[in-house]
């Protein structure tokens, strides 16, 4: 069984940005949060492929955990999407140059106060999650170009396709970076996939972002 993680409310993009963009705030009522953006890239497989018929990319990180491509946004003038694009070029290489993420690809954000990110960091962190559909040839080009990325062999050890069929429960027993497991589980309905039941009667992952008003309460 995969390890239990405390559920965090899912905010929309506007509510998450209202928390602030710099520093290391410790409570949602305080400004000064760092923001990190990650993206799930997926593509439909050819007709006749085994169900569910999609390829989903994740990466094996330097710390032995699985996660999604992306990283911290620079404080100041860098937008969420610009920061994510910069990280994708570093982690995925030149094939990611055309992956222009837009606010419409944003699927929600979670707030992790001081000491609760699960990564050993003392920073208060807001983790933004994006989902982007590609053509299979685009996704395959990213896979082929991964070894040429600046961070290949350093922060990123390699790209993997998530086993979405019978192998998914076993895959979920691996260790994941931050809330990457919850992000994956929350994204499965987008692909028409029913998530495996959580262990020990744990609540299912939140998949609907809160409105700006709810996010500020």
UniProtKB/TrEMBL annotation:
It catalyses: IDP + H2O = IMP + phosphate + H(+); a 5'-end (N(7)-methyl 5'-triphosphoguanosine)-ribonucleoside in mRNA + H2O = N(7)-methyl-GDP + a 5'-end phospho-ribonucleoside in mRNA + 2 H(+); dIDP + H2O = dIMP + phosphate + H(+). It holds the Pfam family Nudt16-like. Its main location: nucleus. It is found in: Nucleus, Nucleolus; Nucleus, Nucleoplasm. Transmembrane segments: none annotated. Its EC number is 3.6.1.64. This is U8 snoRNA-decapping enzyme.
